[in-house]
Amino acid sequence: MLCRSTDAGDLRALHETTRVEQSSMQPGHLVILKGPVTTDLVDAPWRWFYFRLGSRDSLSGGHHCSYSEYASLQEFNANKLLILSLVWQYITYVIPFAMYPFLWLPPYCAILYLVFRRKLYSRSLPILIFSALYLYCIAKGYLGQAIFARTTMLLFPGFCILVGLAYGDLLRLLKKQRMSAILLTIVTVLVIAPSVVFDAAYAHAMEQKDVRSALREDLNKVIANSPTTIAVSRFGPWFYTVMPAVEPLKSKSVTVQPQEADQPADFFLVGFTGPVDTTQTEAMIRRIEQQGNFKYERTYNVPPKILERQFQLARFPPDMTYPFPTILLFRANART
Asked: Where are the domains of the chain?
């Protein structure tokens, strides 16, 4: 993250590791590091992002940061070039969920159809080759093999063209078979319609009040002007699941700090990147309460609804659940 202003603030508290030694880094630097243990800054610099907003002081001596792997190059070693398990995972899991529930079927069928239609190669083959190369590279190399639906978006325009080519060719072949053409159209509509319904429900859920806003309003009512310490668990990517909810509450009387459940505070928050099943939340609640400092109060989440029934996104790629985090709220036990 490149910071152009020395007054941009400091995110050191949001990104921590266990290593103290850091090289000196000044505001405005775009530094690339390997985490969690930081080594030579110039060692394979293209492979790592350094996340920090600039501040007036450098990051030398005693400060902590964390780092995220950007690209995984080991998958392109000679002995792994033909290992396609990650590519297969994109084909069978990531793309189908990115085009949930059935919208992936038309492009998949179109690709199979066009592979055997040599007369259309002049138009279809460039797109097929690009799609295959892009999918191969992104599946094996993106973010250390992390699974994100957003990486498939560059495939979709090509998919649309391939579907159009296949559909147009089929209609031309079926122009004397009216019933077959009508049946093809009906099947296409039936395949696309559920995805339209799902997208509408997903978009409607995003229009509702964000759970982070709801949590912040509830805490603000309870806290009022009382001296309060709000603790945030470092579990998962807490800096964007929980911190946006409580950071605005900071004041002279309200302290917001990352810490573990074995330390006392007035409130303790745990964030998940999206909807989670009850077994996960119950396990987390038991783990926090066993520390003895906090008691479970409430779960904040807003899953999409289809026909007034909640639709769980727990099995979806994580970036599709970013708008719907799950946050657990704990309050201090009376004896603390």
From this structure: 1-70, 78-207, 211-332
Distance CA 17, CA 35 (A): 8
Residue 131 tokens, joined: 């799609």
Cβ 51 vs Cβ 8: under 8 Å = no
| CA gap 198, 204 in Å, rounded | 10
End-to-end CA distance of the chain: 40
Find the mean pLDDT for residues 292-305. 91
Alpha-carbon distance of 122 to 119, in angstroms, equals 7
Q: How many CA atoms lie within 13 A of 201 on its CB side?
A: 20
Per-residue DSSP letters for 111-164? HHHHHT-GGGHHHHHHHHHHHHHHHHHHHHHBGGG---GGGGGGGHHHHHHHHH
- Cα–Cα–Cα angle for 111, 117, 120, nearest 5°? 90
DSSP state of 258: E
Residues in the chain, how many? 336
Contact between 216 and 246 (Cβ < 8 Å): yes
Could you tell me the pTM of the whole model? Answer: 0.73
242 in Cβ contact with 262 (< 8 Å): no
How far apart (Å, rounded) are the C-alpha atoms in residues 325 and 260?
20
CB 60 within 8 A of CB 21: no
| Separation between Cα atoms, residue 297 and residue 268, nearest integer Å | 10
Tell me the per-residue pLDDT of 240-275, one tens digit each, with 9 for 90 and over. Answer: 889 999 999 999 999 999 999 999 999 999 999 888
- Omega into 126 within 30° of 0, i.e. cis? no
From the list 237, 248, 245, 327, the residue with the least C-alpha distance to 288 is 327
